[in-house]
Amino acid sequence: MSMFQIGLSGLKSTQTALEVTSNNISNSSTSGFKTGSTEFAAVYNGGQRGGVKVADIKEDFTKPGDLVRTDKDLDMAITGKGFFVIAANGREAYTQAGQFGLNDQLYITNSNGAKLQGYGVDDAAEPNIVPGVLTDLKIEGSNIPAQSSDLLNFSGNFSSASDVIPYPAAPDSFDPTNGSAYNFSQSTELYDSLGNSHVLTQYYNHTGANQWQTMYFVDGQPLTAAQLGLPGSATVGSQDVSVDGANVSAGVVTMTFDTDGQMLPLDGTFTPGAVADSNSTDPYNMRRVQLTFSPLDADGNPNGAGDVSLTIDMKQSTQFGSGFAMYTNDANGYTSGEFNGVTVDDDGKLYATFTNGESKLQGQLVLATFANVDGLEQGDNTVWYGTSESGSPLYTTADNGTVGQLLSGQYMASNVNISDQLVDLISFQQNYQANAKTISTASDMMQVLFNAV
Q1: Model pTM?
Q2: Which residues pair with 336 in a beta bridge?
Q3: Rounded Cα gap, residues 145 and 139, in angstroms
């Protein structure tokens, strides 16, 4: 091959390298962009020197870009392996550019309108992820209605070292405003079917060795024995209570503990079946108290909501010599709320959030990996497409050890190092000039030959 062709191959190859470097520099601020590098290979035609060619242009998928914090929940970064899966122009594409938002239909999209893909949820009241089928991720933005409280998980330690304080006998009555009349009290916020808030207060008296008695007040009014239900053959007692200067009858529930400090079944005659009774699991629901009351307004009149039927689950309550301590005081139920945003967990689960503090599962984004990322096909808008060389995508969820960690509130910037690119630019420029010089020299030599003829 002539020196002209060898020099020309050098010019063409170096021009390609300059284009790659220029492209890197121009995308130094592009989210999710991966630095390209040019690989050269020598050419020999039948053993004769043939110059150089561009063997491949590879992108650096191993070096992470800087994390840019935005505190926007739908800006996400993958710190390591994996790509976000998006639907772009009817074709599945993959990207590490993690700047997403909600469009006017509440689909999660990037700035080019491509929809983020993931697993959807079923129609259950408490939604569950439906794995295996990719779908456009969408947020249900309708307001959330109020939910009446129907379960209170309540457990604590009732100090065995506390004083014994029996209930007063008639004509005296229990006075909840007298702090010396009981050992311990605890309040819990409840909600009725209209979302109105109510306060349940429990008063605990240490009435004997390993024995405690409890009364229940809602918005300052005691619940009667008829409003309390116990499991099995357990019975509810009664006690006179002073409320606003008048005596009323309140229901009383008796709790007992064994010598190891574990709460016993409320029905003292209960005999377990094949499964052993346990305070930690309560397999027969023998440590539950049922409350039923009609919600009232501030003036003591019915407020229009339905009756509240609340189960108090007291398993795991103990009586040790240490002080009073709450383990759990968690009631369900909530007032109505308006949609106010989206949050993303580390494993990619998406939740709609509401002004009442509640959240609702909406789906879970997936990440894709490939056997050969260098075989991916580049596309516009910082995306890649699968090819036969890359292999089929393998879908997985974040935070499972096979892909990078998912971070919300930030995105991955370009991994271009400007200093390196400027050095390469100078190097390729010199290379281009040198190849041009070989052509110029060959031209001079040809001119000498022609002049000699």
Answers
A1: 0.76
A2: none
A3: 17
